[in-house]
Amino acid sequence: MAKQEDSKLDTHSAVYYHWRVWELTGLMRPPGVSSLRYVVYSITVNLVVTVLFPLSLLARLLFTTNMAGLCENLTITITDIVANLKFANVYMVRKQLHEIRSLLRLMDARARLVGDPGEISALRKEVNIAQGNFRTFASIFVFGTILSCVRVVVRPDRELLYPAWFGVDWMHSTRNYVLINIYQLFGLIVQAIQNCASDSYPPAFLCLLTGHMRALELRVRRIGCRTEKSYKGQSYEAWREEVYQELIECIRDLARVHRLREIIQRVLSVACMAQFVCSAAVQCTVAMHFLYMADDHDHTAMIISIVFFSAVTLEVFVICYFGDRMRTQSEALCDAFYDCNWVEQLPKFKRELLFTLARTQRPSLIYAGNYIALSLETFEQVMRFTYSVFTLLLRAK
């Protein structure tokens, strides 16, 4: 039964939902679909939604004359434009995404060959965490979409789902009002699906990297420790040679882990940097919006400001948390090489181990824009910066 479960191991299923979203939104052509037909579909969907939707928000922003409205519209516009840039980045790194899938297949095959229940369990745990993150983000976006629709329905006067400019009179034309709201609802649903995948794929890839590091850590710790089984029917020297070959295989596995980290770094660098920039801009804008609305006692606007502030802060926290978690696991992987039974081994074993230890001294980190480390220390610095800006604005009010 355990062997049957091992044969079904597929860590790439951690991004199964993301892959389906990217196929649905025109980034990844599904197998069996005509190339020409898919290109036409992709261009249509992305032209109608990914391009026109943020342009309508931007046009409305340019026609806003009061500061409070400017802050409110700017918050929505920045968030949407950055979300579309992250979505476009997925298209730019699609070659690396296919490379990750191929590499994961090799690493899964190695885990199945080893067949250790602890390794399989560690990998499945990370897959479940990644899929759970996607479902959590999906629930948040569904709630937000429903809330926007309810807000339009309960308002006594006419209002759009989001402040946007379309160049037609929708206030006095029922047909225009209905058509624009239908378009905005369609665009909102597509954008929500895109954003759900864009916000949740960085932690999903970090979970994959963490899981394979954990599996390798368990594998390395067992090197040279199964002496009773190994001694049966073979000499002490033959057993030491066998242990040396185990080390060589683990070093190859480590090279695959490092390769996976390098590819994930290229995939996440721009997306995470865009998220940091978006969060900083939105937090500053929300702070101004909050202060201006407080004077008018507009509680609805205040709630919207707090929701946007919480959302962008949560997005930064998630990627920093999983980045920090991956760093901690990389340190545990380094410690595993120290903890293996190296004392009894051949001189060549110890030589290879020393070379490996020299290459694993620095913990692995993923950097946003190849500069900002994804760690809880970074999140702490972001929150301190936000607090400083808010305090400055409060004093200048």
Care to describe what's here?
By secondary structure, the protein is mainly α. The protein contains twelve helices and two strands, in the order αααααααααααββα. The protein has a two-stranded antiparallel sheet. Helix 4 (67-92) packs antiparallel against helix 9 (236-296) and helix 9 (236-296) packs antiparallel against helix 10. The N and C termini lie far apart (67 Å).
Q: Major sheet: order of its strands?
A: 1-2
Alpha-carbon distance between the two ends: 67 Å
Rounded to an integer, what's the Rg over CA atoms?
26 Å
Supply the number of helical segments: 12
Order of helices and strands: HHHHHHHHHHHEEH
Structural class of the helices, strands and pairings? mainly alpha
**Biggest pleated sheet:** 2 strands, antiparallel
Number of beta-strand segments: 2
Please state the average pLDDT score: 85
Strand content: under 5%
